[in-house]
Amino acid sequence: MTQPPAGPSTVSLGDRLFAGLCQSSGVFVLAIAAALVAVLALQAWPALRHFGEWNVLTSANWDPENPDPEKRSYGALLFVYGTLATAAIAMLVAVPLGVGAATYLSEIASPRVRTVSAFLLELLAAIPSVIFGFWAVEFLAKRGLAPAYDLFGLKHQSGEGIVAAGLVLAVMVLPYITALTFDVCQAVPRSQREGSLALGATRWQTIWNVVLPYARPGTIAACVLALGRALGETMAVTMVIGNAQHLDLALTATGDSIPSIIAKQLHETTAGDPKRSVLIALGLVLLAITLFTNLVARLLLRWWAATPRARASKPIRVTEVAEVPPRDPSDAAAARRKAERRDKLMTGVLAGCQFLTVVPLFLILGYITYKGAGQVTGAFFTNLPNDKPPGLYHALVGSATLVVLAAAFAIPIGITAAILLSEYRNNRWVAPVRFVAELLGGVPSIIIGVFAYAILVTPFWLAPGERPWGYSAWAGGFALAVMMLPVLVRSGEEAMRLVPNSLREASYALGASRRQTVLRVVIPAALPAIITGVLLAVGRIAGETAPLILTARGSQFVARSLSDATPSLPYYVYDFAKRPDEALKNLAWAGAFVLVVVVLLLNVAVRLLAGKRVVAAARAD
């Protein structure tokens, strides 16, 4: 996209105020990111100061509740092991499947299969993590892994543990690996494929020797991004890993991870408690790791996108040409038949990878529908959990309240920051705002929850013993708004960049100011794509649970005000899924079904609107 026109030479007061508003929104995004890091570092400082003394990363002895202060131990090695082990299992499963599926869609699949598969992968990526966790506990662990363990003589009744957590993480990161790898495979120049095929190579030989080597940097970047997603996942891991606070290296072992221990125990701590400092220090370590992986991945993608011609035209140096005797025709024919058999085999393997990437979607949706659809009654939408029959009316109201609060806070800031990036590209704040917004999008949701918890629930500046502010809709809405901001900024900028410069130039030629041009030409023209981004951001937070555990929490009644603890549907799916009471578990199934339907409807709406991404203004160019 070319640089937009500079606008009128004279700048009115209204234009200066509007530019200042957009710049303030961009600076606010930077301030949020800086405050997040600063608050976490400040809260973690006591643990960071005693990191070696407390053996935080060198001991697996976690005993912060010991009555004897001298015997308390803060060894968090077992949580680090759980995080790394589950992520490693996820990558071992997801990388070959995702790369294979992407290769099949890019090089072999018909356009119809490609379109349907892309849609199914988008739906899989849209499923909330609490739904993945519920399905993993009830289906993957109990009906999949537990019988498999018994078959091999490994006694494990529930099937929960590190393996189960790793497998559900693999399902969650599959769409990311597949989508990004597909994009980089599609970017391989057609001339590379045609040249290989013209030399007699089979389709598999072309894929293996031409397409995949060319796309290797982008594929690695996709895997690194997926790794960052796996390391920071909270709810699915918390629900299925077993939550055992001892180090066990057995295949069927249960364990714990950094995000899950923060979600379960941080809210139990008080100001000045060393345990609180250690948990936030672990969150800071997790934040550093995920930011580093996201930064590496984005740098790889930018480098790969910036040098396609250099890779395509890389000279082949021949230092010595040996005399090669002519090949026997029978040997050549046999080699050709062998290559063709391998081509058919690998075509089947790649098709199998694609099949396996979409099977989990049908398993999850099918099982959630089977268990939850029948539990959805009129009472579910009108009654409270203690009523007969029970319902989740208060959670539905609370979820709507939190989403509306988050949207009211994030949409104006996100859109005006996007205007800064799109319409004021010479502003010195543009590059840092874009860079920080991209990194903020990769921050684990539990870390954002910790940030909101430390400033709005139990503010870090309160003295020990001073009464905390408590859980509230304000805190939950703020955490969700921070999660919305990167999506809104990025999608809003892309939407406005679709508007052709000729419309801006025509507006300026008629005497309009830059503010008038943005508000009366650019925004209306880009509105369909902006709405798509808003729906995408709402879908991103509608099923979020981890930050709400630390900010809004829940109650058995409708919140009386925005300053009270506010129940939400994802939180009660998580809470009731763990209960032995069958009635409450059925309520969790009903909530899971309703939540999935809402999130998938939002995703379908995004998909339909995205079909109009070339906005009406672009057609008028």
What does this protein look like?
This protein is mainly alpha-helical. It has helices at 13-49, 77-107, 111-126, 129-151, 162-186, 190-198, 203-232, 235-240, 258-265, 274-306, 308-312, 329-372, 378-382, 393-423, 430-440, 445-457, 473-497, 501-509, 514-542, 546-551, 569-577, 582-610, 616-619, and strands at residues 62-63, 73-74. Helices cover 71% and strands 1% of the residues. Helix 3 packs across helix 12 (329-372).
In short, what is this structure?
This protein is mainly α.
What order do the helices and strands follow?
HEEHHHHHHHHHHHHHHHHHHHHHH
Strand content: under 5%
With strands numbered from the N-terminus, the spatial order across the biggest sheet is: 1-2
Shape verdict:
globular
Tally of DSSP helical segments: 23
Average of the residue pLDDT scores: 86
Reported for the largest beta sheet, the result is: 2 strands, antiparallel
Note the gap between the termini.
Answer: 14 Å
- Give me the count of strands: 2
Rounded to an integer in angstroms, the radius of gyration calculated over CA atoms is: 27 Å
Q: Stretches where pLDDT falls below 50 for ≥5 residues?
A: 315-321, 613-621
Portion of residues in helices? over 70%
Please state the structural category: mainly alpha
